[in-house]
Amino acid sequence: MAIAETQVYMPQAPRPRLRLLEDERWLAFVLLVPTLVLLGMFIAYPFVRGILLSVTSSRVGVPGEFVGLANFYKIFNDGIFRTSVYNTFVYTGVTTVFKLALGLWLAMLLNRNFRGKAFTRAFILLPFIIPTVLSTFAWKWMFDPTFSVLNWLLYRLGLITGRINWLGDPDLAMISIIIVNIWRGVPFFAISLLAGLQTISPELSEAAAIDGAKPWQRFWHITWPLLLPVTMVVVLFSVIQTFADFQIVYVMTGGGPANATHLFATYAYQIGIGTGLLSEGAAIALTMFPILFLVVIVQLLYIRRVEVR
Amino acid sequence: MTRVTRRNVLKSGSAIVGGMAGILATGRAPAFAQGTTVHWLRWNDFVPASDQLLRKELLPAAEKALGIKINFETVNGNDLQPRITSAIQSGAGPDIIMLFNNHPQIYSESVIDLSELASSVGKAEDGYYDLCKSNTVDGQKFIALPWTIVGAMIAYRKSWFDEVGSPTFPDTWEKYREVGKKLKAMGRPIGQTLGHTFGDAPTFSYPYLWSWGGSEIEKDGKTVNINKKEVIDSVKFMTAFWKEAHDEGGLAWDDTNNNRAFLSQTICATLNGASIYIESLRNPDKYITEKGAQLKTDIQHAPLPKGPAGQFAMHTFFSHVVPNYSKNQAGAKEFLKWIHTKANYEPWFVSQKGFATPPTHAWEKHKLWDEDKVMAPFKVAGLLGQTPGYPLPSSGKKPAEVLTKYIITDMYAKAVQGMPAEDAVKWAQGELTKVYA
Known about the structure:
The complex is a heterodimer.
Chain A: H1 2-5, H2 16-22, H3 24-54, H4 70-76, H5 79-110, H6 117-124, H7 126-129, H8 132-142, H9 149-156, H10 170-198, H11 202-210, H12 215-243, H13 247-252, H14 264-274, H15 278-286, H16 288-308
Helix pairs in contact in A: 3-15, 4-15, 5-10, 5-12, 10-12, 11-12, 12-16, 14-15
Chain B: H1 6-26, E1 37-43, H2 48-66, E2 69-75, H3 80-90, E3 96-100, H4 115-124, H5 130-136, E4 145-150, E5 153-157, H6 158-163, H7 173-185, E6 190-191, H8 200-211, H9 229-245, H10 257-263, E7 269-272, H11 275-282, E8 299-302, E9 316-321, H12 329-339, H13 342-351, H14 368-371, H15 381-384, H16 397-404, H17 407-416, H18 421-436
Parallel strand pairs in B: 1-2, 1-3, 6-7
Antiparallel strand pairs in B: 3-9, 4-9, 5-7, 5-8
């Protein structure tokens, strides 16, 4: 019979593995796996390893023994460590304030229409694009005790009569590294805040202007509240990066003169890598964690509150 | 079980004889397994011609002679320690690493015993200087193979010292301070680093401390007694000496700044290897004095002045280690043996023009030392230097920790920055006590 001979096409049932991926939970998990592996390898593993190192007497090439919190006790009694903690807070606090103020100012300027806007925006990013070590070496030359172009300029302008010992004086050395960090960080703030500004409808400002609001009032009552969530995220990123900064100080001063500009990271490096006391270096680096963790929690809570409001 | 037959014995015997005959006929060492690469990490030499010589002539010759490939890498001197630390911790990296001063002591558990090689080199070359052994012997064995000593001498401008009434170099700290004061008043200060840098900072601060009767540790190896009158006096003297006679930017200098400052003729004197003079020889028309003469004709070298407790020196010392992790230890040792033979080491030594003093006595007789009188003081650098940890006979782990933490240099740097001398010395006493506890 014809009917009996007709072959009905039956699609093959999907293999169980693929059917599993139709479940969004599994698909999400599979998609997250590469990120989890990367985070595990480059963040979680070093972090756990750091904790394990910090509670041992490990030196370079020598595993050491469990010593509990002895390394932490040792560093809390270390004057250079205390200087490093103080420096890190000053460095992060001062640079963040300046980066925010200058970055916001720059973003407001770049948000206007003017000829060459695209070029200017690209140009502003240069300090952020150039590898940090490279640009810091250029700054090191500019602050060079003997050949400083800044001193030359100030001298020619008649503003100074002798040389300013930029990197040889503890306070000036701190100011110098702060200047370089601000120079490098402002473009990040400017571009991120500019992106935030562009999401704010100009109609709001225009309506306020029609109602008689002055520029400062428009900024304070319209722009700033709407920009606040973006600002908080940018500040959060910046604080984390600045708190753990290494490159600028390492290249500019190496933590000197006489340990006056050490930050957490540079001091941890000197002890862990230079002197080979890995466990003490790990302990110094780890003390950053609770502080940063607290900063992150406070800022994230604040962001959530602002968003809910 | 393999059956040993007469035929097999004859076959293998003839192979061995044939192999030996081949080596003897060609005069070449046995080739290592094909593809053996020895990775050699060194600093960027302050005499660039020497690195060029290694790259273009010596290493190709070594590759040909030993049948290995040599991967030669150079980095900034201050970056050698991060490299060896990460290599040891990760268990992979260069097969031979150059280190400064007593730094090998920090890695003593992670490097191979080079005593056999060191003994053969020492024996062939009339023995090592004491400072070489102090830096590279961990109490029992050579953990590093001494390579060279860069003598630290004060390079100074002869005519400028003449102008202020000092035809010979001042032989005491007091006289040096007086002369320096006059020169600084003329805009020609002394240049000295007190920064965190491997060479010029410790080679100044350690001998200066010793010359006043201070030391980081007493002879018993346990007692820290730096907080005493002699050391406080040395710090007070240094503070005044710094303000009156030095370029105050020196606090931020590394090992290259004083070279640039001297060659730019902004300083009258600086403790250094001979690299400044060698650069002025290399480019005689580039460096011209204010009187129109070539700078090289106005440079002299002198040892550090005497203090109340005598005259001391510490030179920057160089050695090579072979880390335990290296899979090419045999190749690395063969290469070190090859480069330390007179015929191969000599061209490198000559290319240094006296910047580097070899680690053994035999080289004192080399004709290079007679060619240029300005370089003569470097000939005996190896005889005069002490090592960190002096008066201990061996510069072990603790002195290495003190050196890498820059405690002695920082004691003076802190005082120069304004800390009272008593407090600076007290701080150093505290730091040293923690290290030697």
